[in-house]
Amino acid sequence: SAVISQKPSRDICQRGTSLTIQCQVDSQVTMMFWYRQQPGQSLTLIATANQGSEATYESGFVIDKFPISRPNLTFSTLTVSNMSPEDSSIYLCSPRDRDNEQFFGPGTRLTVL
Amino acid sequence: EDKVVQSPLSLVVHEGDTVTLNCSYEVTNFRSLLWYKQEKKAPTFLFMLTSSGIEKKSGRLSSILDKKELFSILNITATQTGDSAIYLCAVRPFGGGATNKLIFGTGTLLAVQP
In three state form, how does the secondary structure of A66-112 look? Predict the structure, then answer.
Protein backbone atom coordinates (compact mmCIF):
# COMPACT_ATOMS: atom_id res chain seq x y z
CA SER A 1 0.00 0.00 0.00
CA ALA A 2 1.03 3.61 -0.53
CA VAL A 3 2.91 5.56 2.12
CA ILE A 4 1.16 8.89 2.59
CA SER A 5 2.25 11.89 4.61
CA GLN A 6 0.37 15.05 5.44
CA LYS A 7 1.68 18.33 6.78
CA PRO A 8 0.91 19.79 9.19
CA SER A 9 -0.45 17.00 11.38
CA ARG A 10 -2.31 19.59 13.42
CA ASP A 11 -2.65 23.34 13.68
CA ILE A 12 -4.49 25.99 15.63
CA CYS A 13 -5.37 29.03 13.53
CA GLN A 14 -7.07 32.38 13.97
CA ARG A 15 -10.27 33.09 12.11
CA GLY A 16 -9.81 34.92 8.83
CA THR A 17 -6.46 33.30 8.08
CA SER A 18 -5.68 30.53 5.60
CA LEU A 19 -3.90 27.20 5.97
CA THR A 20 -2.40 25.03 3.24
CA ILE A 21 -2.29 21.28 3.86
CA GLN A 22 0.21 19.22 1.92
CA CYS A 23 -0.18 15.58 0.93
CA GLN A 24 2.75 13.55 -0.36
CA VAL A 25 2.50 9.97 -1.66
CA ASP A 26 5.47 7.68 -2.22
CA SER A 27 4.11 6.42 -5.55
CA GLN A 28 2.21 7.81 -8.48
CA VAL A 29 -1.54 7.73 -8.01
CA THR A 30 -4.34 8.22 -10.48
CA MET A 31 -6.68 10.39 -8.45
CA MET A 32 -6.49 12.38 -5.25
CA PHE A 33 -9.54 12.97 -3.08
CA TRP A 34 -9.80 15.45 -0.21
CA TYR A 35 -12.17 14.75 2.68
CA ARG A 36 -13.01 16.32 5.97
CA GLN A 37 -14.43 14.74 9.06
CA GLN A 38 -16.02 16.88 11.73
CA PRO A 39 -16.28 15.59 15.28
CA GLY A 40 -18.63 12.64 15.57
CA GLN A 41 -19.52 12.69 11.90
CA SER A 42 -18.70 10.61 8.87
CA LEU A 43 -16.29 11.47 6.09
CA THR A 44 -17.39 14.25 3.73
CA LEU A 45 -15.84 14.53 0.29
CA ILE A 46 -14.68 18.05 -0.50
CA ALA A 47 -13.23 17.63 -3.99
CA THR A 48 -11.40 15.39 -6.42
CA ALA A 49 -8.13 16.41 -8.02
CA ASN A 50 -6.65 15.07 -11.23
CA GLN A 51 -3.26 16.15 -12.41
CA GLY A 52 -3.40 18.91 -14.99
CA SER A 53 -7.07 19.71 -14.66
CA GLU A 54 -9.32 21.74 -12.41
CA ALA A 55 -10.50 20.00 -9.27
CA THR A 56 -14.11 18.82 -9.14
CA TYR A 57 -15.93 20.12 -6.05
CA GLU A 58 -18.84 18.51 -4.23
CA SER A 59 -22.03 20.34 -3.47
CA GLY A 60 -21.46 22.86 -0.69
CA PHE A 61 -17.76 23.32 -1.39
CA VAL A 62 -16.28 25.99 -3.66
CA ILE A 63 -12.89 26.64 -5.14
CA ASP A 64 -12.52 30.08 -3.57
CA LYS A 65 -12.84 28.57 -0.10
CA PHE A 66 -10.91 25.32 -0.72
CA PRO A 67 -8.43 25.80 -3.57
CA ILE A 68 -6.60 22.63 -4.52
CA SER A 69 -3.42 22.05 -6.46
CA ARG A 70 -2.15 18.81 -8.00
CA PRO A 71 1.10 19.63 -9.77
CA ASN A 72 2.16 15.99 -10.24
CA LEU A 73 1.05 12.43 -9.56
CA THR A 74 2.56 12.24 -6.07
CA PHE A 75 1.66 15.58 -4.47
CA SER A 76 -1.39 17.72 -3.77
CA THR A 77 -2.35 20.63 -1.55
CA LEU A 78 -5.63 21.81 -0.07
CA THR A 79 -5.98 25.35 1.24
CA VAL A 80 -8.65 26.29 3.74
CA SER A 81 -9.20 30.00 3.14
CA ASN A 82 -10.64 32.73 5.32
CA MET A 83 -11.17 30.25 8.12
CA SER A 84 -13.97 30.31 10.64
CA PRO A 85 -14.55 28.07 13.69
CA GLU A 86 -16.95 25.99 11.56
CA ASP A 87 -13.93 24.85 9.53
CA SER A 88 -12.49 23.06 12.57
CA SER A 89 -12.18 19.49 11.43
CA ILE A 90 -9.84 16.71 10.43
CA TYR A 91 -8.80 17.05 6.79
CA LEU A 92 -7.68 13.93 4.95
CA CYS A 93 -6.15 13.36 1.56
CA SER A 94 -7.06 10.08 -0.06
CA PRO A 95 -5.13 8.82 -3.06
CA ARG A 96 -6.45 6.11 -5.36
CA ASP A 97 -3.77 3.93 -6.88
CA ARG A 98 -3.58 2.17 -10.23
CA ASP A 99 -5.18 -0.96 -8.73
CA ASN A 100 -8.14 1.23 -7.74
CA GLU A 101 -7.45 0.75 -4.05
CA GLN A 102 -8.03 3.94 -2.11
CA PHE A 103 -6.05 4.93 0.95
CA PHE A 104 -6.11 7.79 3.44
CA GLY A 105 -3.38 10.06 4.68
CA PRO A 106 -2.84 10.40 8.44
CA GLY A 107 -4.97 13.56 8.57
CA THR A 108 -4.56 17.17 9.62
CA ARG A 109 -6.43 18.21 12.74
CA LEU A 110 -7.41 21.87 12.33
CA THR A 111 -8.77 24.04 15.11
CA VAL A 112 -9.95 27.54 14.28
CA LEU A 113 -10.32 30.01 17.16
CA GLU B 1 -30.47 7.13 -4.35
CA ASP B 2 -27.36 5.05 -3.77
CA LYS B 3 -26.86 3.97 -0.18
CA VAL B 4 -24.69 1.79 2.00
CA VAL B 5 -26.00 0.46 5.31
CA GLN B 6 -23.88 -1.09 8.02
CA SER B 7 -25.02 -3.16 10.96
CA PRO B 8 -24.85 -3.27 13.83
CA LEU B 9 -24.21 0.40 14.58
CA SER B 10 -22.19 -0.61 17.61
CA LEU B 11 -21.01 -3.80 19.24
CA VAL B 12 -19.31 -4.71 22.51
CA VAL B 13 -17.48 -8.03 22.78
CA HIS B 14 -14.85 -9.64 24.97
CA GLU B 15 -11.35 -10.54 23.94
CA GLY B 16 -11.25 -13.83 22.09
CA ASP B 17 -14.75 -13.51 20.66
CA THR B 18 -15.45 -13.69 16.93
CA VAL B 19 -17.42 -10.85 15.38
CA THR B 20 -19.20 -10.42 12.07
CA LEU B 21 -19.86 -6.94 10.71
CA ASN B 22 -22.38 -6.44 7.94
CA CYS B 23 -22.57 -4.10 4.99
CA SER B 24 -25.46 -4.01 2.55
CA TYR B 25 -25.74 -1.71 -0.40
CA GLU B 26 -28.06 -0.38 -3.05
CA VAL B 27 -25.79 1.17 -5.64
CA THR B 28 -26.30 1.58 -9.35
CA ASN B 29 -23.46 0.10 -11.40
CA PHE B 30 -21.52 -1.49 -8.56
CA ARG B 31 -17.77 -1.65 -9.13
CA SER B 32 -16.11 -2.51 -5.83
CA LEU B 33 -16.58 -2.56 -2.06
CA LEU B 34 -13.91 -1.44 0.38
CA TRP B 35 -13.48 -1.96 4.13
CA TYR B 36 -11.58 0.41 6.40
CA LYS B 37 -10.65 0.51 10.09
CA GLN B 38 -10.71 3.95 11.72
CA GLU B 39 -9.15 4.43 15.13
CA LYS B 40 -8.03 7.97 15.86
CA LYS B 41 -7.83 10.13 12.76
CA ALA B 42 -7.44 8.37 9.46
CA PRO B 43 -9.13 5.24 8.08
CA THR B 44 -6.78 2.36 7.38
CA PHE B 45 -7.44 0.31 4.25
CA LEU B 46 -8.34 -3.33 4.94
CA PHE B 47 -9.79 -4.94 1.82
CA MET B 48 -11.18 -4.22 -1.60
CA LEU B 49 -13.69 -6.72 -3.00
CA THR B 50 -14.87 -6.87 -6.57
CA SER B 51 -15.94 -10.48 -7.15
CA SER B 52 -18.57 -12.55 -5.40
CA GLY B 53 -17.61 -15.53 -3.30
CA ILE B 54 -13.88 -14.90 -3.15
CA GLU B 55 -12.75 -14.48 0.43
CA LYS B 56 -10.02 -12.00 1.19
CA LYS B 57 -8.00 -12.68 4.30
CA SER B 58 -5.40 -10.86 6.33
CA GLY B 59 -4.43 -12.42 9.64
CA ARG B 60 -7.50 -12.61 11.84
CA LEU B 61 -9.59 -10.52 9.46
CA SER B 62 -11.47 -11.83 6.46
CA SER B 63 -14.15 -10.50 4.16
CA ILE B 64 -16.42 -11.78 1.44
CA LEU B 65 -18.79 -10.20 -1.04
CA ASP B 66 -22.17 -11.43 -2.33
CA LYS B 67 -23.11 -9.41 -5.41
CA LYS B 68 -26.39 -11.25 -5.84
CA GLU B 69 -27.67 -10.41 -2.38
CA LEU B 70 -25.83 -7.06 -2.34
CA PHE B 71 -23.88 -7.40 0.87
CA SER B 72 -20.49 -8.02 2.36
CA ILE B 73 -19.33 -9.25 5.75
CA LEU B 74 -16.16 -8.56 7.66
CA ASN B 75 -15.14 -11.25 10.14
CA ILE B 76 -12.68 -10.78 12.97
CA THR B 77 -11.65 -13.89 14.88
CA ALA B 78 -9.98 -14.05 18.30
CA THR B 79 -10.63 -10.35 18.85
CA GLN B 80 -8.12 -8.22 20.76
CA THR B 81 -8.50 -4.84 22.46
CA GLY B 82 -6.52 -3.35 19.56
CA ASP B 83 -9.38 -4.26 17.24
CA SER B 84 -11.54 -1.61 18.93
CA ALA B 85 -12.34 0.94 16.24
CA ILE B 86 -14.98 2.14 13.81
CA TYR B 87 -15.19 -0.15 10.79
CA LEU B 88 -16.27 1.60 7.61
CA CYS B 89 -17.70 0.04 4.49
CA ALA B 90 -17.65 1.98 1.21
CA VAL B 91 -18.90 1.17 -2.27
CA ARG B 92 -17.51 2.54 -5.50
CA PRO B 93 -19.77 2.61 -8.55
CA PHE B 94 -18.83 2.72 -12.18
CA GLY B 95 -19.52 5.93 -14.03
CA GLY B 96 -20.35 9.09 -12.12
CA GLY B 97 -18.07 11.17 -14.27
CA ALA B 98 -14.42 11.49 -13.43
CA THR B 99 -14.71 10.90 -9.73
CA ASN B 100 -16.29 7.48 -9.12
CA LYS B 101 -16.43 8.62 -5.54
CA LEU B 102 -16.83 6.23 -2.64
CA ILE B 103 -20.22 5.97 -0.94
CA PHE B 104 -19.66 5.35 2.76
CA GLY B 105 -21.81 3.61 5.31
CA THR B 106 -22.18 5.12 8.78
CA GLY B 107 -19.77 2.64 10.28
CA THR B 108 -19.86 0.02 13.03
CA LEU B 109 -18.29 0.96 16.34
CA LEU B 110 -16.59 -2.11 17.80
CA ALA B 111 -15.43 -2.16 21.41
CA VAL B 112 -13.40 -5.15 22.58
CA GLN B 113 -13.22 -5.48 26.34
CA PRO B 114 -10.37 -7.27 28.12
Answer: CCEEEEECCEEEEEECCCCHHHCEEEEEEEECCCCCECCCCCEEEEE
